[in-house]
Amino acid sequence: MSNVLSEKKKQQIVGLGRLGWSLRRIERETGLHRKAAARYLSEAGIPIRKPARPNKQIAKPAISTREAPHGSISLSDGRRLHASKRYPRAGQDIGFSVSNDDGSTGQWLRTLPTRPGDNPERYHELHAIEVGHGRLLAPVRNHNPANERETLQSESSDGGKSWSIPRPIGVWGLPSHLLRLRDGRLLIT
Hints:
Layout: H1 7-18, H2 23-30, H3 34-43, E1 73-74, E2 80-85, E3 94-99, E4 107-111, E5 123-124, E6 129-132, E7 135-142, E8 150-156, E9 167-172, E10 178-180, E11 186-188
Helix pairs in contact: 2-3
């Protein structure tokens, strides 16, 4: 087994470093340990991004991790989008938070619309994936009487500012997870 990266992977690491990505973000997106990424960036003469506030307590993130088994995603515009229930709740919100600083802070972006007759408390494990610049899909586990336990899907074409009313997609599974494969196809598990 070789520990040498392909030229394509090295170029990806260097490119993300040039964009100002943190080592943790590079690690999360590429799977390459941040110490190895730091080595490649240093060899390429790219400065390594330091934490925004060294030796200070980082503000409590506004991006919740509860009821979000798949965590947040990086969008093509550099923001992080997190799909979850809002805690502390303002009503029974399930929807999306956004962060411009890699998740250190964030703000509530949009509540997921509810189908007529549905109780939003019965939507769980929301997830999102970007399928094109600004185009997002979000599967959500449903426990409302209509389509109980079936995965519903909502869509956004404006980077998460607005979302369609969730609709059934004929998939069952707990929790739903959507992946974009390298060839562009989508896989839901």
